Amino acid sequence: MSVLHNPRRVNALRTSNPVQRRVRPRGVPPALEHRPILDTDDLAAARQELPRIFGVDTIDVTISGDHAFHAVVHGVRTRDISLLYLDLAAAELHIPRHGDHYGVYMQMSGSTDWRVNGEAVTTSATHAMVSNPGDQLQGVPGIDSTLLVLLFGAIRTNAYLSRLRGRAVHDPIRFGPGFDLTGDAASRWHSAVQLLTTELFYSASLLHQGVGVGAVEELLVSTLLYVQPSTYRDDLVAQPHPVARRTVRKAIDYIDGHLAERIAMADVVEAAGVSERSLQQGFREELHTTPSAYIRNCRLDRVHDTLADSLPTDGVTVSDVALNWGFTHLGNFAAAYRERFGEAPSQTLRR
């Protein structure tokens, strides 16, 4: 599992003018207690490190109130999800543009008044806030406010949405900003988050052994897609898709089950039970791609997962992983990888 790198920590006890910390429970979740990323009373240090941690270009942090400023962040990153604890005292946040990921901001304690593209949203014990890529966020934490934040990569979230729908996502999904945590459906979200935190807490868990990472991430993403209002939620919860879409689904199921093997088009056609021409047409209409391109993208996803899961001590190389998944022309592979994930495969491996 890859973990967010810890930046240089500032120890208030060693500064010339240490700032007195607030006296109150920190409330760091047990799963993140031993994963500190930032702990500082220095406003400049917070402004420098918070954008890197949250994957945005800029976070404007301004002092507010009469209390002493302090910023604490703990966190961990799995393949494509970051779980962060944020404790920001006596300061307001302004994010001009949310990064290329979706965020769910939940209160661990207290409350926060948000403006999401100008719309007022208050997070509390009963309501969370959901952000989309490119959103403008302004947050005013209340006294004793602490947040648990989950960040989901936009590319993988929309790719998974496409798989659930059995057809292409023309426009990236956009979630509504208010997330009611009190309904029956929200209990599924709480259960999914609890599973993640439990797996992270126990060092002997399957997740720490690199087993089931993708399944846990898919559970979190699918739960969010089904329970939170969005531009695609009605389509997801609608009646089953017509026969044409079921045909494409059969082909997808076959491809997913044989991805590590050589896949001949004739075998995909046989699994789908239609002619090759009909299958090609079905993929174009439903997924706006071809079966061959779909196979390539799925294999790129597997390469990404392997690189993201690897540690420096594993001895994993980009070329070996690419070849294992059938990419024999490394130049074409690197270009396709960058186009899909927005970074070079070597960057994923080092992260």
From TrEMBL:
Q: Name one Pfam family in it.
A: AraC_binding_2
Keyword field contains Transcription regulation: yes
The highest taxon in the source lineage is Bacteria
A Gene Ontology molecular function term for this protein is: DNA-binding transcription factor activity
Q: Where is the HTH araC/xylS-type domain?
A: 249-351
What keywords are assigned to this protein?
DNA-binding, Transcription, Transcription regulation
Q: Return the InterPro entries for the record.
A: AraC-bd_2 (IPR035418), AraC_XylS_family_regulators (IPR050204), Homeodomain-like_sf (IPR009057), HTH_AraC (IPR018060), HTH_AraC-typ_CS (IPR018062)
Which parts of the chain span the membrane according to its record?
Answer: none
Q: Any idea what this protein is called?
A: Putative AraC family transcriptional regulator
